[in-house]
Amino acid sequence: MAFGLTESYNRTRYVEELLETVDEKPPSFTVHLHPEFWVLNNGSKFLYHNQIASLLDDIRAHRIPVDFLELFDSARVPFYEGCMVVELLDYRAQKFNQPLPEKPERTRVTLHPNPETLYADICTMNQKSGGMWSDKDALEVESKLLLATTPPLCLDPNPHLTRVANHVLRASTPTIPVSLKRKAAAIEHEEVESEKFRKRRIMSHGAPSDETRKPTPSCVLVAFMLMTFH
Fold it and tell me: Which residues form the Spt20-like SEP domain (predicted)?
């Protein structure tokens, strides 16, 4: 019992096993990182300070980009066990004054669902069902999704088992990598501002007129992104 519980709380092991399982399968999407711009799949070039570059922040935080869920759904990008697998091809020099590599550095990262994506998924399912769900229906769907995706609940009152599980969870949670954007000196400021926007967006949900709400991608940018998935 304790061994199985510990495994379910070991995120690093889960990610490694997932990436090994889908190693021969296509990624959800690919990001090409160049010194002055980045490319989504084989589509258009985007600057690092472009509005769409918020996608890179989500990749860095290992979370599924909630603002692009409808785009991913319409493009039918593959999901693996509820997660997205993103392939990063880095064409940039690893250190300052070093020449550009002949071949890009290839890595794969997993993006995990979160409460925001769960809520967005429920809204999408409701829309596909004709928008006829009641609050009770939505809560029932949410409970089933949480039951299927969350680790098993430990009801053992043994404090030692709780300490072991918490320690494994802290030790195995992947650290947030360095920003994928070029201006690494502004990482801390970007993180603070990004977190403020996320909190404001959650608090102001349902109030579209709120000016503090983080803007969604424009129609033109979404059109460009749609072209990269076809």
Answer: 24-167
Q: Strand 84-90 to strand 29-33: parallel, antiparallel, or no bridges (unpaired)? A: parallel
| Cβ pair 40, 94 in contact under 8 A | no
State how far the Cα of 114 lies from the Cα of 107, in Å rounded to an integer.
23
Please give the backbone phi and psi of residue 66, each rounded to the nearest 5 degrees, phi first: -65, -30
Mean pLDDT of the 178-192 span: 53
Q: Which structure tokens are listed for 10?
A: 């070991």
Helices and strands, counts by H and E, the chain: 9, 5
HSE of 164, CA atoms in CB hemisphere, 13 A: 15
Residue 155 contacts by C-beta under 8 Å, 6 or more apart in sequence? none
Cβ burial, residue 52 (10 Å; 0-12/13-18/19+): buried
Of 94, 61, 84, 90, the C-alpha closest to 175 is: 61
Q: Specify the amino acid at residue 215.
A: P
Query: 42-51, 121-130, 145-154, 175-184: lowest mean pLDDT where?
Result: 175-184
What are the contacts of 155-162 at 24+ separation with CB within 8 A? 156/1, 161/2, 161/5
Give the Cα-Cα-Cα angle 150, 196, 120 (nearest 5 degrees): 40
Beta bridge partners of 110: 85
H helices present in 28-134, as ranges: 54-60, 69-75, 115-128
